[in-house]
């Protein structure tokens, strides 16, 4: 029996208009009413997903989200962090040097604040276009202090140029960081070992939920760890090929209520059968 459903946002729960369909809302509301934990699992900070939590009525005591690709596990009602993994300042310096050498813009997320660092004069970061709910500030590297929280680093730039520069990232960086494209024009860096699966495993441990009682739904490369980790990993029909290859099942697209279809079949129908 599924007791926790972890769901990605973009390309999964959200349709092409960045909205949650009525059918998706209804299926998740029924699952929550039946006692199933509905957990948004995203690369975004909590401040950037508030409108979706409100739309899904996930602001109650006992509702949780996994943010920063597994870096934080938070209570939705208060924002309290119950599990966290962050970057040390040395990582920020390391990635600043990398971004400078690649001539790409670098943004560092620090809770709900985005620190934009001067790593290139040729390319402007597209991150503010991708996440409009966050606050952006320009900073010099020397201004950053060790006592500050650094959640992750992102490079947001034209897809063609980004793909070219990714090929130039030295292999040792892949040993030190989780490096994943979360959108076609967005590359993210997390501390090694910090993935959506890691965040889900911590929350499941805290809630006493077993791995086989977890269903995850996603579409992009950063969803791979949670798709593989869950007792039931579900890929969207619009998912990248590798996610579809590794998933246990494939549901419909994000524009055709794929999340609702999976929840109805694998969560709600078994619950009805048990009554």
UniProtKB/TrEMBL annotation:
SUPFAM superfamilies linked: HAD-like (SSF56784)
GO CC field: cytosol
Molecular function terms, GO-annotated: magnesium ion binding; phosphatase activity
Cited InterPro entries: Cof, HAD-like_sf, HAD-SF_hydro_IIB, HAD_sf
Keywords: Hydrolase
PANTHER family per the UniProt record, alphabetical: HAD SUPERFAMILY HYDROLASE-LIKE, TYPE 3 (PTHR10000:SF8), PHOSPHOSERINE PHOSPHATASE (PTHR10000)
Name of the protein this chain belongs to: Cof-like hydrolase
